[in-house]
Specification:
- The protein is mainly β.
- 4% of the residues lie in helices and 64% in strands.
- It contains four helices and 45 strands.
- The radius of gyration is 28 Å and the shape is globular.
- The N and C termini lie far apart (82 Å).
Length: 792
């Protein structure tokens, strides 16, 4: 026993002697402009120009590097989008601990004659609860619209109709400046000019402080807002050359004087878009040949004011205005093997959409750092009017007809958010929200066999409150939260009750982070989420219609609930970083599409939605940012998702000579790979190669085939870096197409192609004065599932 005690003291003494000959360095890293902490910045410790150790900052920007030998070191502090901070230190027997105090990182933007220039290169930040893509002036995010940019982002896919999905699932919330809009997500992405976007945030497993809507998470599009002293502006103009030329332009500007800052953004898109398709019915050897043309015009305005009462109180107000006008022309040739039975249809959709958002916010900063109170009110109003003209010719019994669909929607919210860092290691967050949504739909038609008029109302009352509590220790941190929510929905169809639901539920969340070492960290998270049926999925009014196909909603849809779990890993490298993650989801009352024969004519098809039993989904992601050398950097990314889908298919029963509805189950596996490779030839000239591959994906009704493309581009800066000219050649080999095949309710094959091969040209010019801080806003999300998933 005495021997054991002696041995313990001896070993302890050795460690004590070792510890006495070691030192440490500490500090806090912040953004020089906003004074906010910079989380996950890289700390590199060098001795004799060789890396000896390092680490990363925590959520509050703090770091501590221990077990350093007593000698001289060079400390580099790095973060993507910022200039590297470098300082020399010397640890000695008399000074074993050195505090660098507050280190302020400057943005990696070029300032010439007082001009604040947008970051040259797009960057990706992996934060604790989200991935942030900062949109620069490089070719990685070059494109005319937000939809073009989304196609280049890891884990995000945009199909030929503009429908967006995250991790292989379309149940995703799309926000603008953290606020919901009343515009369908696919339409919204086509309306926002790419040059008006500052950054894009991907939140795949939001905590309880976020609204629980969206199975696959949240995509938040943050528009530019300047707060620079004096007058500042950035002008962009671009053109896309494809079947016909298309144009887009934008201007971002502000005027700051004293305590008042005025800011504004304007952007537009004009031009024709073309889409062609072919669908074959193998059982009757018939074909549908589609020739689709859309003439779209969109305008986006953002105007606002910040009033800095004092250093601790700010009032801000802004309005976003979207104006969209579009004409969609669909010519369809219906071809049959029997001579004289062919017929044609010409469908014209005239769309006029006005969407207005008004926001008023107050922010109070308490004396304690990080102690804040936010009060915010938001009102969103929209009117969407569509006139449809349907002309038939040839051997068809279908008569010509017209219809009109008008949708008016109001979405009003009030939020209160409170954050209190109880101490250096503990943070409490509290908040409440009230949301009222009112939707009024009118539908008129003179089509034979249809109701001439439909009045469909869909109203939602939602009240919620949340609390999160987090603590941080040496290597472990956690956050626990819960959101309590009261939800009431009522739908009426021509005055009769079509659907009603009223429930109270809780949405818990949990985050656990483990810092294995200075360069390796793990995070485990859990959240419960919900997908509520959108108006497009519930309305009995047609979403679109052709001679042999139409899509309508189901007013009796119930919400689907999801329990989502994720495990993420981050590895900091000397020249970049690697992020990996796996996820698993359990889905209850899944909402899915079904395709059935038209009861009035079984040669035609109807697409609608229904609820199904429990479901599961899993997948993984792997991405990296790596700087190979001074002139070459690359961002490879792959992701895989697998979801078990259940649905109803109609199968023809020869015994009864009719269709039977049969529930089926499939496993849909989706694999995506991307590679951005940037080459810097000179200080002014750079090049890009982008490759994309998407594997084939099975579905309930159809199996989609693989898709792939290669883009290339170049960018040249001039006029002392105030101006730039960019070129991007998309889909150089013209390989992108959407092809599919299916057996039910009929054996069919098809393919759609669009103007994927195009040349995009952009010119940017910036001028202005110095820089100052803007109001840091909260970002929240919608509570309504967006989009019906149109075919065209």
């Amino acid at each position: 026993m005495n021997f054991k005690i002696t041995l313990i003291f001896f070993i302890t003494g050795l460690f004590s002697m070792q510890a006495q000959n070691q030192g440490s360095v500490t500090g806090k890293v912040t953004d020089k402009t906003t004074n906010t902490p910079v989380s996950y910045a890289t700390i590199v410790i060098k001795a004799d120009d060789k890396v000896t150790t390092g680490g990363i900052t925590d959520d509050n920007g703090n770091f501590e590097i221990k077990n350093l030998e007593l000698r001289k070191y060079k400390v580099d502090i790095q973060f993507i989008g910022y200039k590297t901070y470098t300082t020399d230190i010397e640890l000695s027997a008399t000074q074993k601990t050195i505090s660098l105090n507050k280190i302020q990182l400057e943005e990696e933007s070029t300032q010439l004659e007082g001009v604040t220039v947008v970051a040259e290169r797009s960057t990706v930040e992996q934060k604790i609860d989200r991935k942030v893509i900062n949109v620069g002036r490089d070719l990685t995010t070059a494109g005319a619209t937000a939809s073009d940019i989304m196609s280049n982002i890891p884990s995000v896919n945009v199909d030929q109709d503009g429908k967006i999905s995250l991790r292989g699932n379309q149940n995703v919330r799309v926000l603008v400046d953290g606020r919901p809009t009343n515009i369908d997500a696919a339409q919204l992405l086509k309306q926002i000019p790419s040059t008006s976007i500052k950054k894009i945030e991907l939140i795949t497993n939001p905590s309880a402080k976020y609204n629980p809507e969206g199975m696959s998470g949240i995509i938040n599009i943050v528009l530019h807002k300047n707060a620079n002293d004096g007058f500042n502006a950035s002008v962009n103009t671009g053109a896309t050359f494809a079947t016909t030329p298309k144009s887009n332009s934008s201007i971002d500007m502000n005027y700051r004087t004293g305590k008042i800052n005025f800011f504004g953004t304007y952007g537009n898109n004009f031009g024709y878009q073309f889409n062609n398709g072919l669908v074959k019915r193998e059982d009757e050897n018939s074909s549908q040949v589609f020739d689709i043309k859309n003439d779209n015009k969109s305008h986006l305005y953002k105007i606002g004011i910040d009033f800095y009462i004092n250093d601790r109180n700010t009032i801000s107000a802004y309005t976003n205005q979207n104006i969209f006008m579009g004409d969609g022309y669909i010519h369809t040739d219906n071809l049959f093997p029997t001579p004289g039975t062919d017929f044609q249809s010409d469908d014209h959709y005239r769309n006029d959409n006005d969407n207005s958002a008004y926001n008023l916010a107050y922010k109070h900063l308490f004396k304690k750092e990080g102690h804040t109170l936010d009060i915010e009110a938001n009102h969103n109003w929209s009117k969407d009017k569509q006139l449809g003209t349907f002309d038939r010719s040839g051997n068809t019994a279908s008569a010509d007809y017209n219809d009109q669909r008008t949708q008016r929607r109001k979405n009003s919210t009030i939020n209160v958010d409170y954050v209190n860092p109880l101490n250096e290691k503990t943070t409490l967050e509290l908040g409440t929200e009230a949301r009222l949504i009112r939707t009024d739909n009118d539908y008129f038609t003179n089509q034979t066999g249809e109701l001439p008029y439909i009045k469909f109302l869909y109203d939602i009352d939602l009240f919620s409150a949340y609390a999160t509590f987090g603590q941080r220790f040496k290597k472990i941190s956690y956050q626990l939260g819960a959101r309590l929510e009261s939800y009431k929905v009522q739908a009426t169809n021509n005055g009769a009750k079509a659907y009603e639901d009223d429930y109270f539920t809780i949405y818990p969340s949990a985050y656990f982070t483990y810092q294995l070492s200075d360069k390796n960290s793990f995070q485990l998270s859990y959240s419960r989420r919900v997908d509520r049926p959108s108006l497009e999925q519930t309305s009995p009014i047609r979403e679109f219609s052709t001679v042999r196909f139409k899509s309508v909603g189901n007013p009796e849809l119930d919400p689907q609930f999801t329990n989502s779990m994720e495990l993420n890993y981050t590895r900091v490298l000397e020249k970049g970083s690697i992020s990996a993650g796996v996820f698993y989801r359990i889905i209850n009352d899944e909402i899915s599409r079904i395709l059935i024969p038209d009861p009035d004519n079984n040669q035609n098809q109807i697409m609608l939605f229904d609820n199904f039993d429990n479901n599961t989904s899993y997948g993984f992601e792997l991405s990296s940012n790596y700087k190979v050398n001074k002139w070459w950097d690359m961002q490879p990314a792959i992701d895989f998702s697998s979801i078990t889908q259940k649905g109803i298919v109609s199968i023809f029963n020869q015994t009864i000579n009719d269709f039977e509805s049969v529930q089926t189950e499939i496993t849909a596996n989706a694999f995506n790979a991307r590679l951005n490779s940037n080459f810097k030839a000179t200080k002014k000239l750079s090049f890009l190669i982008f490759g994309f591959y998407r594997g084939g994906v099975n579905g309930i009704q159809f199996n989609g085939k693989e898709m792939y493309k290669v883009d290339a581009g170049a960018r040249y800066s001039f006029l002392n870096n105030k101006a730039s000219l960019s070129l991007r050649f998309n889909d150089m080999f013209n390989t992108m197409k959407f092809a599919f095949e299916g057996d039910n309710p009929y054996p069919q094959t098809g393919q759609f192609t669009w103007e994927s091969q195009s040349l995009y040209v952009n010119f940017n010019f910036m001028f202005g004065a110095g820089k100052n801080r803007a109001l840091q806003r909260k970002y929240r999300e919608d509570n309504t599932k967006q989009g019906g998933g149109g075919l065209f």
